[in-house]
Amino acid sequence: MQKMHFWLIGIVLLGTLLRVHLISDNHLHTWDEQYHALVAKNLSDHPLTPTLIDNPILPYDYKNWVGNHIWLEKGPVPLHAIALSLKIFGTTPWAVRIPSLLLSILGIIVMFQLGRLLFNKNVGLIAAFLFAIHGMLIEAAVGRVSSDHVEFFFIFFILLSVYLTVWILKNQKKYAWFILVGLATCMAVLSKWFPALIIAPIILAGFWVYTQPKWKNLLIISFYFLLGFLPFTLAYFIYCYTNYPTEFLFVFKKFIFAFNDTVEYHNAPWWYYIHKTGILFGEFVYFALIVTITHLFKVKNKQLLLTVVWIFIPLLIFSFAETKRFTYLLIAAPAFFLITAYIIDYIRTESKWNTFLGYFIVLLLIGLPIRYCFERMKFFSEPVIQQWSKNIQELNTSEWKKKTVVFNVEHNIQAMFYHDFTFYDFVPNEEQLKMVKDKGYDIVINNIETEFENKFRKEFKLQSVNIE
Known about the structure:
Layout: H1 3-23, H2 33-45, H3 76-89, H4 93-118, H5 121-133, H6 135-141, H7 148-170, H8 178-192, H9 199-210, H10 215-243, H11 245-256, H12 272-281, H13 285-299, H14 304-319, H15 333-349, H16 356-377, H17 387-393, E1 404-407, H18 412-418, E2 422-423, H19 430-438, E3 442-446, H20 450-460, E4 463-465
Parallel strand pairs: 1-2, 1-3, 3-4
């Protein structure tokens, strides 16, 4: 076995250990893992009907994504993958995380292959290492940051689309292979909507780098790409519009107009992502960006065009959009790893850089991402044990009737993940109690107050429970 393979196996093992280290939390994380987990659980029972509150006994607002019934906020690909995992391994937090854990490990290998194809094996190994240790990517894969598993599915399929593009064009494969690129991009769109179309300018950049830019060839590539992309994408959109037109149009418009309107108060100044770049990928990544652009124009290293397009198009678009979130920049994470790896390899092989300054720069380009990994992983912190989650999981519902609704449970989404009852996070008023009772449901109140108990217990036959 070649030395390179040993290094790659070591990097994959390291990445796996880092992810496994974080996967065993005893609770679902508040934003947004618990919602994805509950929708996936419901999908495991009825795969064609995505729901959050599966049995909404009380009226709900379809615009409220944390409390509605039909749930179309995220695409079906990651949610159905989680649903399958729950069906196989049971309703547990770690079963929710298995699909993105596996994709995350596979992503390390795809990252290596892309770096090897674009540049050389050394660049591939360094880029794979940076991918394996990146703190935010690891947290996304195990559900600790917002968008979590959905975000990682999205990033993986973008990475896969770029790799397939480079593999086809560089190896002069038949353009019919672009059906796979279209399919991978479709999977990205059906994970997290339209930012996945970043692959289109990257394909154009690859087309210019590796082939003679003829309109006929571009039209052929586009045809095969759309042949892979459109069928499943349109089928999903048509299905949603046909069956849930109100919810689908609301979600569709919300994400289409996120550029002009602030979604859920996620606003920030235009330079937000420029600042976040240094935090996410190490402060010295700005140096790597400057040298990369210099090499693109002076050294004529055309392969760098793909990475520059991959970085600057989302950076530009997201910077001038009204809605801003730090995880949005992860779409370009593989490109940042590639340019960092390219600069490290360049410094290592160029004799004029074999100086203290060159070694110091390499140390910063590698050391700062390692520091970020330690910051996000919190290796020396005590594991957080959420007693409320344990209480919810151990809740004895064996004596409850099938038609029972529970009120005043703060972590009601997680409660519905573990138990097949409807839980609400508020104390009902008299009108709501009547509405529930008229529908034939027993009513359970968590931590019932004495005044409330005295007023309504007898009339509505209230039961009490202490969960949290």
